[in-house]
Every structure is written in structure tokens, then in C-alpha cells.
Amino acid sequence: MGSRNMIARRLRAHSPISDDPPERARSLSWGELAPQVRAALAGRLEGLYGAEQDATAFDALAVDKQQALLIFVQRLDNVKLWREVRRVTNVYGAGGVGMEFVASDALRARLRESRRFTSRFAAHRDTAEGFYELRRARAALHFLRARRGGREWSAHFDLYAPLSNPLGALRHLWHERWRGETPDWESIAMTLGYNWQKLTLT
């Protein structure tokens, strides 16, 4: 028990999450988004939770879902993969930060060929395959391809990347496996230095 408490103290001491919570985000409207963000989302939200149009779908999302979606737009654009997202089918920013989507046929090949991602230990038991993001110790992407279809994917953020280094693996196990803790959109946004008002796309 003593060694486990010592590990816990050490992990908390190196946490990237500030004790001061960020200012609470409010619900956004489609019209408030920058033109380049609306262009990036165009056609990708149709049908999400039954909405017929992108604007209607976005406006109906809860705050955590809106913010998680915008985080994914920016992060996947940064790694040149947003264009492979064809249609978003689910998104969440509480109890984890993730997105389910239909992808292009090229996504699998691009992940396999990229030096930024590895398939090592990345698949789950109920998935066809998976890919971990390398080069990041925190807020790392984790892609999973569903067994039920070659183009059905999900992606989520691991607050601590399990393959970054031994300490990162220990932190991942401690927070997500042993304590059952998952990040929310605020913790991922803080780690990435994200601000929806300053969102820039390449």
C-alpha cells in the first residue's frame, strides 16, 4: 500500500492539469465559427443525431460535444488527417474525449505508412486494428477501426500516451485502468493549449 501511495503522489505531482479550472465554455452557434472551420465541417455533420444539415447538427450539440468536435477538427487538421473524415456519427467530450466517424478508404493506409502512428499494442479486443500516436507524451490520439466495417472508425485522446515512455505507460495505467479516470474536453484542451476562438487550420 505504501509503494502504491508513493506512486500516486509522484503521478499527481507531474500532472499537466492545472488546479485552476478554465472559464466555462458556453454553447456556440454555427454562425460563430470561423469560415474555414465551417468549411472543414461542411457535409460531415449531416445525419448526426438525426439532423439534416451541418448547422442544425452543430447548434443542437451539448457544450462538451461542440468543444470535443472542434478539438478534433484542429488536431486532425494538424496531422493532415481531417480530410479523411467523411461523416461524423458520434462525438463526446465528457467521460472521455472521442469521436466516431466514417472514413475515406485512404485513412488506414495513411496511418500505416505514417511515422507518427504505430499499430503496436493499439487494437482493442473488439476492434479490427488500432493506431497510437507517437511523439506525444500527453493528449495523444488513438484510432480504432471497427470490426463491423472497414470504413467505420473511432478516435479518442489518451491523456497520458502509453507508448511515450515507461512513466507515461504507468500514468496511463494508474489513471485510466486502475482508477477508471478519463479526460474531459477541458483537460485535453488545456494540455493541447486549445482555444476555440483562436482555432486555426492549415
Task: Describe this structure as you would to a colleague.
There is one protein chain. By secondary structure, the chain is α+β, with helices and mostly antiparallel strands. Helix content is 35%, strand content 20%. The protein is built from 7 helices and 6 strands. It has helices at residues 2-13, 35-41, 54-60, 63-78, 107-113, 166-178, 185-192, and strands at residues 85-92, 98-103, 117-118, 127-133, 138-146, 152-160. The chain has a 6-stranded antiparallel beta sheet with strand order 1-2-6-5-4-3. Strand 3 (117-118) and strand 4 (127-133) form a beta hairpin. Helix 4 runs parallel beside helix 7. The longest helix has 16 residues, at 63-78. The protein is globular and about 40 Å long. The termini are far apart. The relative contact order is 0.15.
Give a topology summary.
Elements: H1 2-13, H2 35-41, H3 54-60, H4 63-78, E1 85-92, E2 98-103, H5 107-113, E3 117-118, E4 127-133, E5 138-146, E6 152-160, H6 166-178, H7 185-192
Antiparallel strand pairs: 1-2, 2-6, 3-4, 4-5, 5-6
Helix pairs in contact: 4-7
| Largest β-sheet summary | 6 strands, antiparallel
Mean pLDDT: 81
Helix count equals: 7
User: What order do the strands of the largest sheet run in, or round the barrel if closed?
Assistant: 1-2-6-5-4-3
Number of strands: 6
Residues in helices, as a percent range? 25-40%
> Low-confidence parts, pLDDT < 50 over ≥5 residues?
2-22
**N- to C-terminal distance:** 49 Å
Shape from CA axes?
A: globular
The amount of beta strand, in percent, is: 15-25%
Order of helices and strands: HHHHEEHEEEEHH
Radius of gyration: 17 Å
